[in-house]
Amino acid sequence: MSPAQTAFLRLQWRNALSQTSGNNDNEKDQASEGIPAPTGKANLIDTDYVIGQDNIQTNKFGFSVDLHGKVFTVSSLVILLFVIITLALPEQMGPVFNGAKSFLTDNLSWLFLLAANIFVILAVVLIFTPLSRVRIGGMHAKPDFSYAGWFAMLFAAGMGIGLMFYGVSEPITHYGTAITGDSWAPLGGAQGDSAQAQSMAMAATIFHWGLHPWGIYAIVALSLALFSYNKGLPLTMRSIFYPILGERIWGWPGHIIDILAVFATLFGLATSLGLGASQASAGLNYLFDIPNNNVTMVLLIIGITLVALLSVMLGVDKGVQRLSQINMALAFLLLLFVIFVGPTMLIATGFIENMGSYLKNLPALSMPFGREDTNFVHGWTAFYWAWWISWSPFVGMFIARVSRGRTVREFLIAVLLVPTIVSVIWMTAFGDTAISQLTSGFEGVKDAALELQLFVMLGQLPLTEITSFVGIILVMVFFITSSDSGSLVIDSITAGGKVDAPKPQRVFWALIEGAIAIALLLGGGLTALQAAVITTGLPFTIVLLAACYAIIQGLRSEPRY
Q: Where is this region: Disordered (predicted)?
């Protein structure tokens, strides 16, 4: 977690009324402590709503609570009911998850693909319109962070466990299906053509980690930043919809939006924890012969959750920040190790070739209709798009917080391109190394389980024990920091927009994340994790499509330099 993330999580919401330097001297600014009022002209929204006015505040049995009654009650009861039923009836819930996943992907994959395309197209189009001259935070706002610091935080915001889990397994899987012409091959594959199969595998992998996920994050983050820093509304999902709903965002329409954001974020984080636990368990088995079973994974989830709880109780500035910085440094060192110890020239040339293959195949890979590679679309792309959408409230809030002072054009170019380039570097280093091992005659990576493939690939390089152990540590700490900050974001949403709510509420949500991950693993494993993300991502996809209209309306009303 970066210093900016720490600052974001420690914001103390309050309302303040002040005169702005905008066109209308009678406009009022609802500012928040730590989130400054617009600097220069900005079109503030005049509303009488006070943050936290609908909250329940009490102190019983030594526990203080300060929460939005409706949002918290509905969210927590539905989630608790889901956990109880899944843990009580794991054998019965497995087929339910399978059925839900199959139904949604078979019938609605086109919606996920179409929506993601809309987000990317909107982000790109906005770059070239006069609306891109709007500055986040007002016409005279100055950036809070340097370009170097800002770029680093953009990448750190949205990826982590996913890169560790899929950095090897996705390229090697796509390569295997492409060269054999398997029904799971992206775009039909390239049967018998090793070079073309590798190109197709890397293009498909980068497709899932490139412009589309960051287009989703960009739209959510820009919307939150605009309606918070320029319009004076709380940094919550409901604020985005003021151009559509007006004052009704403070009623049940807004409650439903925030509840959906809670569901999406919780299941997105739980999916990441489940994937991380399965990979860490596989790594421990590979290195130390610790049994790779549900017991080990459950114990890992409990352990990771307890560490996340400790960080929530102590505060994110007392250890977790340093731990996160060490984690990012370890990830960078692991990347450099693979580049320089692995097939260095192949990785260097592969970066350009893979980027070219990605851009060449992008239109075909993103086509939502008339696809023949239905297994690839249903089993991979639909899951990824739902996963990114479920993470978008959490990641969007962070990106919005660190992007004040940037123009819309700066913001969109950076959010779309910088993380995409870093993702291409990572996937090229790990993916091309694994494929190189396979084409050289080593089939261990291909034959290993998905969660084990990273460690088998590292096993063919020097310092296996050290690099594999580093990989396990990276997976664990990536989730600890995500769980910690994710719990605070969810707590903010369910506390009516406050982020200074009592600690027991944060502890509750951290525990819920772990409980959901355990329930999903026991109730169906990876399929259950995917089903949960797709199910919760679907309604939130509709929410984000409506947000596209809202953001255009919000930008049109803003002064431009």
A: 19-38
Q: Tens digits of per-residue pLDDT, 199-228?
A: 999 999 999 999 999 999 999 999 999 998
pTM of the entire predicted model: 0.87
Report yes or no on 48 lying in a domain.
Answer: no
Mean pLDDT of 179-187: 93
> Residue 63: enclosing H or E segment and its boundaries?
strand 63-68
476: nearest Cα among 288, 183, 273: 273
Q: Are 459 and 469 in contact (CB under 8 A)?
A: no
Residues in the chain, how many?
A: 561
- The Cα 479–Cα 525 span in angstroms is 18
Which ranges constitute the DSSP H helices of 210-251? 211-225, 242-245
Instruction: Report yes or no on 52 lying in a domain.
Output: no
Q: Is 126 left (phi over 0), alpha (psi -120 to 50) or beta?
A: alpha
What is the count of structural domains for the chain? 1
Q: Read off the CATH number of the domain in which 157 is found.
A: 1.20.1740
Alpha helices in 440-502 (DSSP H): 444-447, 453-458, 464-494
What number of helices (H) and strands (E) belong to the chain? 19, 2
- The neighbouring-strand residues paired with 68 are 55
Of 511, 60, 92, nearest to 304 by C-alpha is: 511
What is the band of 174 on the pLDDT scale with cuts at 50, 70, 90? very high
Domain that includes residue 86, residue range = 64-557
In angstroms, what CA-CA distances link 259 with 68, 83, 148, 243?
A: 11, 17, 35, 20
pLDDT of residue 492: 81
Residues 362 and 124: beta-carbon distance below 8 Å: no
- Alpha-carbon distance of 476 to 9, in angstroms, equals 20
| More confident of the two residues 20 and 140 | 140
Could you tell me which of 251, 195, 227, 207 has the C-alpha nearest to residue 35?
227
Residue 57 has a CB neighbour count (10 Å cut-off) of: 11
Task: Single out the residue of 522, 493, 534 nearest to residue 67, CA to CA.
Answer: 493
Residue 8 has pLDDT above 70, yes or no: no
- 1 falls within a domain: no
Q: Residues 198, 382, 494, 509: what is their CA dihedral angle, to the nearest 10 degrees?
A: -60
Q: Which of the pair, 143 or 317, is modelled with greater confidence?
A: 143
Residue entry with tokens 């919606």: 111
- Helices 320-341 and 464-494 pack at an angle, to 10 degrees, of 140
145 or 411, greater pLDDT: 411
- For the segment 85-89, the average pLDDT, to the nearest whole number, is 85
d(CA 442, CA 515): 39
Distance CA 355, CA 343 (A): 18
Token pair in block for residue 277: 């636990």
- Residue 321: predicted pLDDT: 58
State which amino acid sits at residue 401: R
Q: What share of the chain is helix, strand, coil (3-state, %, to 5)?
A: 75, 5, 25
Copy the structure tokens of residue 366. 């993103």
- Whether the per-residue pLDDT at 23 is higher than 50: the answer is no
* Residue 49 located in a structural domain: no
Q: Are 416 and 211 in contact (CB under 8 A)?
A: yes
Amino acid identity of 215?
G
**pLDDT value at position 436?**
95
